[in-house]
């Protein structure tokens, strides 16, 4: 598929987490990777894409780091309010995009600030595969290890059939109106939502899984950043 055949899209980057599992001196999206912050690398995965209509990044209200980034003054980036949970941050960004003219039928791609290694080939594959899909879907990676279900005391109870198990990645791509409605309903009900797909599933939809690269990993714990820093040096 040529670039002009890829659909236009909006991007939402939730970046209002505190990174508690990272145990760093600042939220993980502001830690350095190859001389810049993780968040700047993540934004670069989208800025400059010819089909991008606009981008909103959700930032915590009292965040002292965001205003210091050169991209804070980038006119292409809208700042949305971070929320208590990731889903709140995403919902706020969708509201902002809608207020700025995004249509309910427009595609929106939600991507974690903490996933700076999204390959352009994965982004374009997601757009191409879902361009004609009525609903949308997400990048995901098939489970690659043997899976165990454990008892509370940490002993193996059984080996799980992994043939239908996938790990959910981002970006997750949905129609803005449908995603906003699903998140709104889920948040009002108080159901646990860890990604956009969960909200859509909860609303009764079956999002499509698009296989992506495993190295689009989310920096969650210190060893994730160490791994990525080494990969970054090898890549450049
Ligand atoms: N209230 C929140 C919580 C999370 N996020 C964002 O959602 C993404 C994925 O979440 P996760 O890895 O869980 O980040 P944190 O919540 O920061 O990490 P932790 O759970 O370890 O505190 C991150 O880019 C994070 O900044 C957000 O925008 N708003
Ligand atoms: C959205 C997500 O990246 C999909 O894997 C993930 O669920 C967000 O982080 P968390 O570790 O579940 O909070």
UniProtKB/TrEMBL annotation:
InterPro entries reported for this sequence: IspD (IPR001228), IspD/TarI (IPR034683), IspD/TarI_cytidylyltransf_bact (IPR050088), ISPD_synthase_CS (IPR018294), Nucleotide-diphossugar_trans (IPR029044)
Identify the residue position(s) of the site Transition state stabilizer: 21, 28
| GO MF annotation: an example | 2-C-methyl-D-erythritol 4-phosphate cytidylyltransferase activity
Task: Quickly give the catalysed reaction.
Answer: 2-C-methyl-D-erythritol 4-phosphate + CTP + H(+) = 4-CDP-2-C-methyl-D-erythritol + diphosphate
PROSITE patterns found in the cross-reference section: ISPD (PS01295)
Q: Superkingdom of the source? A: Bacteria
The protein's UniProt keywords, in alphabetical order, are: Isoprene biosynthesis, Nucleotidyltransferase, Transferase
Pathway it acts in? Isoprenoid biosynthesis; isopentenyl diphosphate biosynthesis via DXP pathway; isopentenyl diphosphate from 1-deoxy-D-xylulose 5-phosphate: step 2/6
EC number of the protein: 2.7.7.60
Query: In this UniProt entry, which residues are annotated as the site Positions MEP for the nucleophilic attack?
Result: 162, 218
**Pfam families, sorted:** IspD
**Which SUPFAM superfamilies does its entry note?**
Nucleotide-diphospho-sugar transferases (SSF53448)
| Protein family per UniProt | Belongs to the IspD/TarI cytidylyltransferase family. IspD subfamily.
The record, for PANTHER family, names: 2-C-METHYL-D-ERYTHRITOL 4-PHOSPHATE CYTIDYLYLTRANSFERASE, CHLOROPLASTIC
Summarizing the function annotation, the protein's role is: Catalyzes the formation of 4-diphosphocytidyl-2-C-methyl-D-erythritol from CTP and 2-C-methyl-D-erythritol 4-phosphate (MEP).
**Name of this chain's protein:** 2-C-methyl-D-erythritol 4-phosphate cytidylyltransferase
Q: Which gene encodes it?
A: ispD
């Amino acid at each position: 598929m040529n670039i002009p055949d890829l659909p236009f899209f909006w991007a939402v980057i939730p970046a209002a987490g505190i990174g508690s599992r990272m145990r760093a001196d600042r939220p993980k999206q502001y830690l350095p990777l190859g001389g810049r912050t993780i968040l700047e690398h993540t934004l670069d995965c989208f800025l400059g894409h010819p089909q991008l209509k606009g981008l909103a990044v959700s930032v915590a209200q009292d965040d002292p780091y965001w205003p210091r980034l050169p991209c804070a003054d980038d006119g292409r980036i809208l700042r949305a309010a971070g929320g208590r949970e990731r889903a709140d941050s995403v919902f706020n960004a969708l509201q902002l995009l809608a207020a700025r003219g995004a249509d309910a039928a427009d595609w929106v791609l939600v991507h974690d600030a903490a996933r700076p290694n999204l390959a352009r080939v994965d982004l374009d594959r997601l757009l191409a595969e879902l361009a004609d899909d009525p609903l949308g879907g997400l990048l995901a990676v098939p489970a690659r290890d043997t899976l165990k279900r454990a008892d509370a005391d940490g002993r193996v109870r059984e080996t799980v059939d992994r043939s239908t198990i996938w790990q959910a990645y981002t970006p997750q791509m949905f129609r803005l109106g449908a995603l906003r409605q699903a998140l709104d309903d889920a948040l009002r009900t108080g159901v646990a939502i860890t990604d956009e797909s969960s909200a859509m599933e909860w609303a009764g939809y079956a999002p499509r899984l698009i296989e992506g690269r495993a190295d689009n990993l989310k920096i969650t714990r210190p060893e994730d950043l160490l791994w990525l820093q080494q990969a970054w040096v090898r890549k450049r």
